[in-house]
């Protein structure tokens, strides 16, 4: 019988462990994906004002603590509850009058839990906000071993005295021993349960922070609240119009663009230049809707520390203007559709951890022949072919196993494979050598011949082959004309 009981216990514990493991993994994945989804849809101003370390901590430390909470609740709290119920049943079977002392003691235990829980929760929040030299003092306060042990000893003595008094007249020595032993363990388990509950709640501050990011974080609005437009399949063709565009990055800051208006024809190669801070790269914030021009679409900002909305100055002029692509107001186009229709090649080439094939063709829309053809166009075919795994080569973090020039050429290959009619280059040649710059210029002339290309650069040789050059100054369009006309103007 004992062997069968032991075997059944082992089987039950094995099944229990598997269920806990799968449940914990699934819940962690759901919470992580929900957190990631909301952070990825947060407006640009959130990333400007929130330290990256704090965001990383939500995905690392807080997620880990949340996993520990899940395991602790099931492995600790449930077993303690079962133990308490078991001892209550044992003592009640031997002496039903135990309930006269047992039930009132639970009320006292609950009072201790209530007081202790409030203190620990407040201390834990202070500890999480400010990691100062008094951290050890906070930890001692959170632990609270001395105070709870004192309460436990006091209650255990009263509870055991009641069992002894009742049992003195109604039970023999063996039963009194079982009742006293059960009473001692009952009080001990109640103490452990209090500490377990409080510890779980103190750790729940991590879940509160995750929940804040998942529920209260401002989100970009994928479609306009004043109506939406579903562009045709062949949209866009490349015509771009800015109409009196003025915006600031966030409330309280000055305008970075001021009444900017221009018209880029489809298939044009436009060079954009200007001094640092003139508003060159700021043009892209409006094009990709990283900053909303329509006040109705601007998300309400919330202070990540307090959770309260950030009040804006009502006397402050709002963002204004409109951006059209092929005559369609982009504020009424779905964000995903808009951003997937414009390819960008940034100054710092971005490669993701994964295979080289994935970095070139993220949507997995092209076959190997097309990928190799594009690698030949950007003169990277030989380099990739000589790698042992070819397209299956694993890209290290930030693409560290490729040089800066090679990473930039891979990004160009990605832009070609995306087959977008609008291509934006934001200082794409600023950090590459002259040889790589020449390869990039050749790629632009040959592969982007029928596409609208916006080249933001302070290198004159990079933009001199453009159809027109737009000069930015103090957030305004100072000049826009052909390179030849601007040369004559400067003379």
Automatic annotation (TrEMBL):
GO terms for cellular component: cytoplasm; membrane. InterPro entries: AAA+_ATPase (IPR003593), ABC1_TM_dom (IPR011527), ABC1_TM_sf (IPR036640), ABC_transporter-like_ATP-bd (IPR003439), ABC_transporter-like_CS (IPR017871), ABC_transporter_C-like (IPR050173), P-loop_NTPase (IPR027417). Keywords: ATP-binding, Membrane, Nucleotide-binding, Transmembrane, Transmembrane helix, Transport. Residues 240-490 form the ABC transporter domain. The keyword Ion transport does not apply. Gene3D superfamilies: ABC transporter type 1, transmembrane domain, P-loop containing nucleotide triphosphate hydrolases. GO terms for molecular function: ABC-type transporter activity; ATP binding; ATP hydrolysis activity. It is a multi-pass membrane protein. It comes from the Eukaryota. The keyword Ion transport does not apply. It is found in: Membrane. Its main location: membrane. The chain crosses the membrane at residues 6-23, 69-91, 97-114, 150-170. Residues 1-145 form the ABC transmembrane type-1 domain. This is ABC transporter: Multidrug resistance-associated protein, ATP binding protein. It comes from Streblomastix strix. The lineage of its organism: Eukaryota, Metamonada, Preaxostyla, Oxymonadida, Streblomastigidae.
């Amino acid at each position: 019988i004992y062997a069968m009981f032991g075997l059944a216990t082992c089987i039950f514990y094995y099944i229990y462990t598997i269920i806990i493991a799968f449940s914990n993994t699934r819940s962690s994945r759901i919470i992580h994906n929900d957190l990631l989804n909301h952070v990825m849809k947060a407006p640009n101003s959130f990333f400007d004002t929130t330290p990256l370390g704090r965001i990383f901590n939500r995905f690392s430390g807080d997620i880990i603590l949340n996993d520990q909470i899940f395991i602790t609740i099931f492995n600790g709290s449930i077993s303690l509850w079962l133990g308490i119920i078991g001892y209550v049943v044992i003592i009640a079977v031997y002496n039903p009058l135990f309930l006269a002392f047992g039930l009132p003691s639970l009320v006292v235990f609950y009072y201790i839990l209530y007081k202790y829980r409030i203190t620990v929760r407040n201390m834990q929040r202070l500890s999480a906000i400010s990691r100062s030299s008094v951290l050890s003092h906070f930890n001692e306060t959170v632990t609270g071993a001395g105070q709870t042990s004192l309460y436990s000893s006091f209650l255990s003595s009263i509870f055991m005295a009641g069992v002894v008094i009742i049992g003195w007249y109604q039970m023999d020595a063996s039963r009194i021993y079982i009742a006293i032993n059960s009473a001692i363990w009952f009080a001990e388990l109640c103490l452990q349960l209090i500490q377990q509950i409080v510890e779980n709640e103190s750790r729940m501050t991590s879940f509160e922070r995750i929940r804040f990011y998942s529920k209260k974080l401002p989100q970009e609005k994928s479609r306009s609240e004043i109506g939406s437009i579903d562009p045709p399949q062949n949209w866009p063709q490349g015509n771009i119009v800015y109409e009196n565009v003025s915006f600031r990055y966030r409330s309280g800051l000055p305008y970075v663009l001021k009444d900017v208006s221009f018209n880029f024809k489809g298939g044009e190669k436009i060079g954009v230049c200007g001094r640092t801070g003139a508003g060159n790269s700021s043009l892209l914030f409006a094009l990709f809707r990283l900053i909303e021009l329509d006040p109705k679409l601007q998300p309400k900002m919330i202070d990540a520390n307090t959770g309260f909305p950030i009040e804006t100055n009502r006397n402050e002029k709002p963002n204004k203007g409109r951006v059209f692509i092929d005559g369609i107001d982009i504020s009424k186009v779905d964000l995903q559709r808009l951003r997937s229709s414009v390819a960008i090649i940034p100054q710092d080439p971005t490669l993701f951890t994964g295979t080289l094939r994935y970095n070139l063709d993220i949507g997995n829309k092209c076959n190997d022949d097309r990928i190799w053809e594009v690698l030949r166009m950007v003169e990277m075919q030989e380099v990739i072919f000589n790698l042992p795994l070819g397209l299956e080569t694993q890209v290290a973090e930030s693409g560290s196993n490729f040089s800066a020039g090679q990473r930039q050429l891979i990004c160009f290959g990605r832009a070609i494979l995306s087959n977008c009619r609008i291509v934006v280059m934001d200082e794409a040649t600023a950090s590459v050598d002259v040889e790589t710059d020449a390869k990039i210029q050749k790629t632009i002339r040959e592969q982007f011949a029928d596409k609208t290309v916006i080249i933001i650069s302070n290198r004159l040789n990079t933009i001199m082959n453009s159809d027109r050059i737009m000069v930015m100054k103090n957030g305004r369009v100072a000049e826009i004309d052909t390179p030849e006309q601007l040369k004559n103007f400067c003379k």
